[in-house]
């Protein structure tokens, strides 16, 4: 318990320092609920404790080659994880893994509308994350993307218990679409990409405010100030 308190202190200190430097949105935790952190240091997320079961509807957008969070959800709660990522090489990498039957993979992207997107390649060869943000180069692949309403219809669901998205800059328009469509989502985990791809901290603050106004309250922010966990009140 002591070590956990020390870790939490330094985590909060780092987060506040990033906000002071203007590197993270100037927002605070808005609700206190017990939560757990699942997955690796790189790919892990915080979710509310004891809120999922085998019947929960879970969607995970942007998985890359770190699926530790998705596997932890399956191991802890027996849920089926619907995982999405059109990034080149992800499909081939998954075929080399020993995956549980509850892990369902779909090779397309989440967007604010059904469309074919240009997915721009990372600048570094050892990076896997692609982005829809136009880098002014011809280094891209075209991928199929769908809005959340379409995806829910295809999967036969009307609401979501847990939605995670790490979609490299596409989250801002997707959040607008989610709020306009009034899709019911109990927990929403978002990685914002301020200070990347030309995205400003103010854009993330605006998106968080819009979620707040729709009833989503923050219960955890990562120490880096990029990963945000919301619960719908």
Automatic annotation (TrEMBL):
One of its GO terms (molecular function) is methyltransferase activity. The keyword Metal-binding does not apply. One of its GO terms (biological process) is methylation. Keywords: Methyltransferase, Transferase. The keyword Ion transport does not apply. Residues 80-218 form the Methyltransferase FkbM domain. It comes from the Bacteria. Pfam families: Methyltransf_21 (PF05050). This is Methyltransferase FkbM family.
């Amino acid at each position: 318990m002591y070590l956990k308190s020390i870790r939490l202190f330094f985590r909060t200190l780092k987060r506040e320092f990033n906000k002071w430097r203007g590197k993270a949105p100037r927002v605070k935790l808005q609700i206190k609920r017990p939560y757990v952190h699942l997955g690796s240091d790189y790919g892990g997320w915080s979710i509310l404790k004891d809120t999922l079961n085998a019947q929960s509807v879970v969607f995970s957008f942007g998985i890359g080659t770190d699926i530790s969070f998705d596997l932890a959800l399956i191991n802890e709660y027996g849920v089926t994880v619907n995982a999405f990522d059109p990034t080149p090489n992800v499909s081939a990498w998954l075929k080399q893994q020993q995956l549980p039957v509850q892990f369902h993979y779909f090779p397309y992207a989440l967007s604010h509308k059904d469309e074919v997107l240009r997915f721009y390649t990372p600048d570094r060869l050892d990076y896997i994350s692609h982005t829809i943000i136009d880098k002014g180069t011809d280094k891209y692949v075209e991928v199929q993307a769908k809005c959340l309403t379409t995806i829910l219809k295809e999967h036969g669901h009307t609401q979501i218990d847990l939605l995670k998205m790490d979609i490299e800059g596409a989250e801002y328009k997707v959040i607008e679409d989610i709020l306009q469509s009034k899709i019911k989502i109990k927990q929403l985990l978002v990685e914002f990409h301020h200070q990347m791809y030309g995205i400003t901290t103010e854009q993330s603050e605006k998106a968080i405010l819009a979620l707040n106004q729709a009833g989503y309250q923050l219960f955890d922010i990562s120490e880096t100030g990029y990963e945000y966990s919301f619960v719908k009140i």
